[in-house]
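EI: anyone free to look at a 677-residue chain?
SC: sure, send it
EI:
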Amino acid sequence: MVLLFLMTDMHFTKGFIEYRMYGERRRKQFRPGEDLRWDHGVLTWRDEKVPGGRRLRAFCETGEKAELLVALMEGKREYPHEERVFCNGFQSWTTSREYRTGERIPKLSPLGRLFSLDRYGDYHFVSPFRRGAPLYSHSWTYLRREDSFHFIGSLAEIHGYTLLLHDPPAKKFAVVRDCQGVIRRHEYPLFDLFLASGREEEVFSSFLSLQGLQGQRRTLTGWTSWYNYYNDITEEIILKNLQAFQDQNIPAQVFQIDDGYQTAVGDWFSLKDSFPRGMKYLADRIKEAGYCPGIWLAPFVCARDSEVRKKHPEWILLDSQGKPIRAGWIPPWGGSFYALDIYHEGFRKHLREVFHTVVKEWGYRVLKLDFLYAAAMVPRLGKSRGEVMAEASRFLAEISEGADILGCGVPLASCMGVFSFCRIGSDVALKWEDKLLSLVGYRERVSTINSLNSTLGRRQIAGRAFLNDPDVFVLRDSVAMNRDQRETLFLLNVLLGDVLFTSDYLEEYPPETLAFYRSLFPVRERKVSGVNFQDRLAIIDFTVGTAVYRAFANLGDTMTTVILPEDAWVLQQTAWNPSEPEVIGSLNLSPGTTRYAQRLSDKLPRIAGGAGHLFPAAFVESLKANEKDIDLTFSLDTPAELKVYLSPPEPGRYRVNGILRETEYHERGIPFIEVSP
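SC: here you go
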């Protein structure tokens, strides 16, 4: 028997293919790595060394008379108690995080199914593939012990979804290919797996490089209407928020109009009376204000009462029984809404017209495209769900008329390298958690902590597959989150995300909140070098310029104490947490709290934090000292309000940039001189 060693302590020993021929379901057993020929098909294997690991591929040829259903490889593996298992969720909104080996992914309760919550995720099709495994992941997974990663990911998701099953109690691991619906005259890539062990950066860099995905992180900032006004938007609301951004001279990039301008989802040219001058008028005003216009569409669904559904019932996607496929249930949309058939030529022509109008005639350059999972709820036309989803994503890119696409509600692997931006977590809520939706096992629930878990869990693909959109941050007071929770949402989005939007009306901000928001600008490049977890405490190491930082986020329900390493650390103040520079050795963090500290240089004088920006030390390009003379050079984009705290070797008088200054001294802090550019 051929044993394929995928990780140091795991190998596959058996597998099977299920297919349907002449209406009869059949199964063929195989041994992984061994070529096989039988009456109805051929299975061939390729196992090769690639940069960073190994690539294992299996190709199946069954001819046009057979419909593939599912393939599985299974093996044994020990799961040590201290190991953590990452499970990537089905689509953008699905919980994606590390699990302990004793945890299990919850099943959706009957109550959740009653309200059609099963339509948004994989609940309606994954059960036979999951095979009772407590933990499972889509497209890629890893097992982590401290900073050592065992990684396995699929390189061929455009041909079908891949599930990676973990069953720690049974000491089993399996890879499942959802190839239901596939009918081929030629060979089909049954498995295409990348297998590696190493450090986090190494394994992810190799995995993404093999797919040609090695972009560079950048940041997109902006405003969107949804998380303040939801469906109740008007032309007046958009314009008053635009004016607030202009009045405050906020150097954001995108101003986006979300759901609520259309009379019904699917009827994109039919506008509510509250938009009397049309969408082109607003796009023009946004451009005049110096921002890029963005707009929301849900191209693959339509509301029950929409004109599209009434006039074009032939565009509705049907199941095997000929019934319309419901894509979900949302009361403001009139209840149930339906999936549309992306292969219907009439509908494809209609979508081309919609995109041409929105981009070329109205003038919107960022398209937030939502509820995209609906395109591939069933396999069809000889294609698997994964193939349909990949083709749907590429069709959107084809008709986008050069506009940037922000994908949402979409399986991530289906749009890697296709969309400019993609949501990587659930919608943020105006509270920390929705306990009821959590209890029913709804993994796509609107929830701030759910969103943050996925922001942390999918951090490794940021700026590579696309720019990660962690969803908005909310700083305004009129929400059911305390200040610590709102600050945590803001800081983790900034550290780990690439798309940084808010929905707040800036005129409602008190001065300290406006200062806190403004301290994001100008945006500086953040490089995360590592994320570690101690239970529900996330520890994030990152650099901004030459400044070295460590952030601590308490995402648990109890107070926790953090002991910092022996290096000298100074707590970084913000407009919401002002403080004098103070060298610290520990932090007490209440639930939902995040704080971050700058590591101080061993060489004196040194920069010990500052104020006026989230990362003030990053604006100091050089520091030169000669006894009592000290010269600082700041970068050209340094904000005028920036202050840095210069910590000299000892208290006394120093000439700083030609001006004689004397150290200040805080009784709990360190001697310092406050310096501005």
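EI: The mean pLDDT is 95.
SC: 👍
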